[in-house]
Every structure is written in C-alpha cells, then in structure tokens.
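HOLO CASE FILE
Compound: serine
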Amino acid sequence: MNKILVTGAVGQIGSELTLALRERYGRENVIAAGHRTPPSDALLQSGPCITLDVTQRAQLDAAIVKYGVDTIYHMAAVLSAVGEQKPHVCWDVNINGLYNVLEAAREFKLARVICPSSIAVFGPETPRVNTPQETVLRPTTMYGVTKVTGELLCNYYVWRFGVDVRGLRYPGVISSETLPGGGTTDYAVEIFYEAIRHKKYTCFLREDTVLPMIYMPDVTRGTIGLAEADASRLRHHADFNMAGFSFAPRDLAAEIRKHIPEFTISYAPDFRQAIADSWPMSIDDSAAREEWGWYPEYDLATMTADMLAKLQRRYEEGKL
Ligand code: SER
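Model generated. Tokens follow.
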C-alpha cells in the first residue's frame, strides 16, 4: 500500500500533484505537507494536511512515523529567482532539506523517493539546442548548483544505499491552479492572468528568449509515470531530461492573441534575463522516452487554449 508524503504540497507543482495522487491512491493515503503558505480548500478538503519544515529532520521523522509513510514526493524547494536573492536559504532548503529526506528514506527503508530536478542544472557552457541527457552541468545560479548537487546526492543514495530515488529535470512549468513562486519561467504563467484581467502584460524577459516549457497535466502524468516505472528498465535515476515544447515570449503572445486579439505585450528585462540566457532552448528527452515511456500530450496551442479556458471560467466566477 502506498502511503505518500508530499513536501511542498502547497506549491505550484505540489498542489496539483497532491490532488492527482489522492485521486489515484486514495485521499487518506496522501499527506500534504506545506510550510508557511496555508493549504488551499481543495487540499484541506481532500485529505490530510500538515505543516512541515523539511530542514528540521525531527519533523520529517515524526510525519513518517505518524502516517506510516513509505513514499515521499519531495517537492519543497526554493526556485531560481528567489535563490539568487537568498542563496543561503536556497542552499538550506534545497540541500539540507533533501539530505534529511534521503537520510530518512535510508533509515526508515522507504520504498521510494521522488525528487525533482530542473533545466537549471545546465549552464552557459551546455549545448542549448536539444540539450543532451549527458552533458556539461555547470550552472551559474545557486538554484542550479543545488539541483546538480541534489541529483548527485540522489544518485549516490541509489548506488550506495539502494534507496529507490527518481527524478526529472522539469522545464518551466505552466499551470492554472497555483501561481509559481520565484522562478525565471514564471512569466509564462503570469502572462495568462494578465491577459484575462487587463489584456496586456509586461514581460521580464526579452521577446526572443526561447525556453523549454511544459504544461501541468503532463507534469503530473509524467511524474507519476516515472514513480510507477519498472525499476529494472531504469538506467538513469534522479536526472531524467523531460521536454514539453519550447517558445519565446513573443510566440506565446501571438498564440494568446489568437484568442484575445486586443492583447498587447511589452518587455522590460530584469536580472532574470541572465538566468534565462544560461539555460537551454530545447531538451532531448529520449532517455525518459526509452526507459519509461515518457511523452508529452500538450503543445503551445493546446496548452494556451486550455489555460485561457480555465482562467476565463474562474474570472467569470469572480475567483481570479
Ligand atoms: N521554473 C524554474 C525556475 O524558473 C526552473 O526549474 O526557477
């Protein structure tokens, strides 16, 4: 029986992943752990919710014992833009938090840990087009440094201690339910809210900044797909490249204009431009496709139509 603890369950990915896991494994079997932000009504009403600081090992152990946890989806992390403003907090949460999760998994002999990585593991020396699975990992952000370190640490726990740790290098994630917090790819979510509310948006990246992105339904399906994959087929563990589709802000604006013709965009690049410029434009995810059958369902057009339909509905209900 799966008893799943989701850390970072109130965050952009965690909030929707938790609901998908509850649907699949049963509401009572998925414990949503948040830190400072209170859980949404959807999380509170669909299963157990707790407060947990992943940097505090005792809190993690207590939750594992209390709920009989055998699987952790460790989604708690500080993202790239906030990570540059508070590098020490980024290190503490992303590394010491992960170390606590891995040590708890080893000591309690947990069945599995899922720990996301990111396109932020790559850096300016990495080939930027169709970035290979095996390539240069020299990031220039603290977030990227923690994600490379995290991948190495996770893989070490696989080989050294036999802990079943799995993870994906998420591209920028676009989602309709919870806003992302403090990332460089966040513009691709904010733009939809502003398109619906004000028909205009000022983007903090240049118009031609191509980045790899993915839509949340593909993220939840892919993450659960990797967690359920046959272990004997996996040659990689915590570092699978994952791709959805790539676009620049001007491409997304043009797509939105197909639905909202009066939408306008302007550009005021800030410090996040340098972060984006150090990341890939597109990703080769053939290892994930071969080893556990990954494929994305959404592209730029279908994602945009779905996002706008969902947010428009919420706007009309007065909930946006
Ligand atoms: N979306 C993340 C960020 O922008 C990348 O993993 O920080």
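CASE NOTES: Residues 79-80, 118-120, 143, 170, 172-173, 183-185 surround serine (CB under 6 Å). The first helix runs from residue 12 to 25.
CLOSED: yes
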